[in-house]
Amino acid sequence: MTLPLRPELEGLTPYGAPQLDVAAMLNVNENPYPPPPSVVAAITAAVRQAAGGLNRYPDREFMALRADLARYLALESRVDFLEPKNIWAANGSNEIMLHLHQAFAGPGRKVLSFAPTYSMYPEYSRDTVTDYVTLPRREDFRLDMDAAVAAIADIKPTIVLVASPNNPTGTALGLDEVIALADACAKIPGGSVLVVDEAYAEFRRRGVPSAAT
Ligand SMILES: Cc1ncc(COP(=O)(O)O)c(C=O)c1O
Q1: Domain 92-203: which topology?
Q2: Fewest CB atoms within 10 A around its CB: which of 45, 82, 98, 113?
């Protein structure tokens, strides 16, 4: 039987970070230490309690989780003004990125990013039938800010996507760079959303602030 696969997906191999058997597994931002027994016990107790209500859908707005994430950001990133209503959560940041593309990108629109960067970025665009455009990073992997600001004005992307620290280069954005990109986005008629992907926030060097501060 032939399935009606979109022609542009034919022959592609699915994304997957390699699960390697090596001494230092750093490639997928995992913790080398297992959770302590007290955390395992707390998870087990919470699952036991939740299991008794599985005949109903859970809270669709997951407000308790969003409140906990806001508290975590206050500790990790010193961003203490966020409330649950400012936070969204999903199955990994990949799903959130897809939500952002579904809302703000799509056919006839462009996403701008800066290569080399996270290999999933073109895939979010492909999956939402969006044009994915990249500008090369400088030799030290920082952004060429003049070129970036000019490209935003020229290309008029509806999303500008930057990882900070960047995968695979580890380069983080300074607040001055975040502000310059946000200002350039604000000038686009119809709007442009600056997405700063801090999936690797915990690897920022001391003193490098979160874009959310
Ligand atoms: C820069 C960057 N953003 C997002 C992700 C996806 O993270 P998640 O596992 O939360 O979907 C990764 C995973 O490698 C990443 O490197």
Answers
A1: Aspartate Aminotransferase; domain 2 (3.40.640)
A2: 45
